[in-house]
Amino acid sequence: MEHYYQPEIECASREQIKAWQDERLVKNVKHAYDNVPYYRNLMDQKGVKPEDIRSTADLHKLPFITKEDLREAYPYGLLAVPLKDVVRIQSTSGTTGRRVVAFYTQHDLDLWDDCCARAIMAAGGTNEDVVHVSYGYGLFTGGPGLNGGSHKVGSMTLPMSSGNTDRQIQFMCDLQSTILCCTPSYAAYLGETICERGLQDQIKLKAGIFGAEAWSEEMRQDIQNKLHIKAYDIYGLTEISGPGVAFECSAQGGMHINEDHFIAEIIDPNTGEVLPDGEKGELVFTCITKEAFPLMRYRTRDICVLNREPCSCGRTHVRMSKPMGRSDDMLIVKGVNVFPSQIETVLLNKGYPANYQIIVSREHNSDKLEVQVEMTPEMFSDTLTEVSSKEKELIDALKAMLGIYAKVQLVAPKSIARSEGKAVRIIDNRNLY
Amino acid sequence: MTVKQISVFVENKPGQLAEFTKLLRQHNIDMRALSIAETPDFGILRVIVDDSYKTACILKDAEYIFSITPVLAVPIEDEAGGLDKILTILAENGINLEYTYAFITRNKDLAYMIFRVTDNEKAMEVLSQHGIKTICQDQLSSL
C-alpha cells in the first residue's frame, strides 16, 4: 500500500496544482521585489515589474539567478525577511571558496520538513519506523532535512550523523533501524561492511533514502542486494531548501518534484530558452512558498529531463530524472560540492603554478579526490621531512577550503598536459552518468 | 669543508631513474655516490658527482627540479667500528643527522660517509677537534 504524508497535496489534480502555483508565484515575486534590493535590481535591469507576472505563464519573463549572484550577495544580500524572523542557516560551498548561505524562517523549516516527510512516507515510512540518519549534521542540509522529516512522520529518529561505521552498525543492530538515510556511497560501504561481518541477519532495514551525490542504477541494485532493502533516490540543494525538493516513490522511476513549493523548468543551458517537456536540459527552480530565501529561476546546473506522465503511485507531481550531468564544472565528491576554481585558489595562495589536474575515482563505492600538482623549486628540498611538511600544508589548506580530504600528488614539472584552449582540469573516472 | 650534493625530484614511476642516468651518461658525468629517499609517489635522488657545476647546468636545461646542498664527506677507516666512532662524536655534541649514506672509492683503505646535518660549521668543528677532516669538492673530484 502506498503511504502519503499529505495525500490531498501529493495527489491533487493538475488544475489544483496549477492554481496553487499561479497564486503563490505572484505573491512571492512581489515579496522578493519588495524586500530584496538585489532582486529588484535584477528585475529592473530586465524591465520586469511584479505586476507583469500574473501566472506561471509569465514565469519566463523573470531573470535567472545563479550561484554567482549568491556569491556576490553573500552573506545577507538575498535575505528577504528581517533577521529577527530567521531561525536557521545552512550552507554549501560556492565557486571560488566563498560559501553560499541559505536562510530559513520557522515556516520555511516546517515546509522543508514536510517535503522530507513526504519522501520518507513514499519510501514506506510510518510512525512505527526507526529512521537512521547517517547524513552529516551541521551546515550540510542532509542530516537536518531528513531529521526534520522523520520527526514529522513521527518515526523514532536516530541522529547518527556521518562517520564512525562501527557505531552506525551497532545502533542499526541494537535499535533495529528500518529506514537508512545517507549518501549512496556510504550506504554501499555500510552494506559491504555488514556482509563482511556476517551481520545481515541482525539488520532489519527495509528501505533507504539516498541522495546528495550521483549514483547509477547498477549501484542501486548493489545496495538493494547487499542490504536487502528498497533504495530510493532523493534530490535537493541548499539554495532551494535541501533534500526533499524531489523524491522517489514506490515506482522508482524518477523523482516527484514538490510542485506546491517549487516550480521546475528545463532550459537550454546555452541560450536560456525554456525547452518543452521531455527534452534534456538544465533544471531551473522557482521557490513559491519560501519566506527568507525566495530564489526565483535558480539555475541548478543539473542536466535532466522532466516527465509529466501519470505515475503508478498516484502522485500527480511532475517527475525529474536523475541528474545526467552538469552544465558547469562543479564536481560532487563524497556529497560535497567541489569547484576546480577553489582548488586553483588554494594552489595560487600557496605559491604553486595554476597548472593542476583533478582526478576523481570511486574505489569500493567511495569517492577519492586527487590533485596533481607540478613540483616547484621553491617547494623542493633535499630532505623528505621538508617536502612532506609542505605537502601536508597543501593538503590541510585544501581540506580547509573544500571540507574534504584530497590526496596531493606531486608530479614532475611540465608533466601535466597544457592544452591550447580550455585546459583539461578534471578527469572523472567514476562513470556516474 | 663541504661537498656539493645535488638532490633531484623524480616521480616514482618506471624508467625515471634510467632517464636521469642516461642524461648523465650523455654528458660524461661520473657519479661518486648515489642515494634515494622514496615515498609511494616520488623520490628524492641524491648524488655526488665529479663535476657539480656542469651537472647543475644539464639538469636545468632538462627542466629537472633540483637543489644543491653542502654536505659533509668524511673519510672513515673501512673496518669494524669505523662509522661508530664518528657517530659517537656527533651524538655527544648534540648534532642531529638528517640522513647519511656511504660510498667507497678506488682507494681501498678508506670509505666515505656523507652526512647531512643542520649545522655544518659546528659538525666540522667537533670532528676536527677529534682529528677528523672532512674533504672538499676538489678532493672529491679527484678520488
TrEMBL record, chain A:
Pathway annotation from the record: Aromatic compound metabolism; phenylacetate degradation
The UniProt record lists the keyword Cell membrane: no
One annotated GO biological process: phenylacetate catabolic process
Alphabetically ordered keywords of this record: Ligase, Nucleotide-binding, Phosphopantetheine, Phosphoprotein
CDD domains: PaaK
Gene3D superfamilies, A to Z: 3.30.300.30, N-terminal domain of ligase-like
Purpose of the protein: Catalyzes the activation of phenylacetic acid (PA) to phenylacetyl-CoA (PA-CoA).
Quaternary organization: Monomer.
UniProt name for this protein: Phenylacetate-coenzyme A ligase
Source organism (scientific name): Massiliimalia timonensis
Highest classification ranks of the organism: Bacteria, Bacillati, Bacillota, Clostridia, Eubacteriales
Automatic annotation (TrEMBL), chain B:
CDD domains named in the record: ACT_Bt0572_2 (cd04882)
Gene source species: Massiliimalia timonensis
Domain ACT, residue spans: 5-76
Top-level taxon in the UniProt lineage: Bacteria
Name this protein carries in UniProt: ACT domain-containing protein
Stored Pfam families: ACT_8
Gene3D superfamilies xref list: VC0802-like (3.30.2130.10)
Cleaved signal peptide residues: none
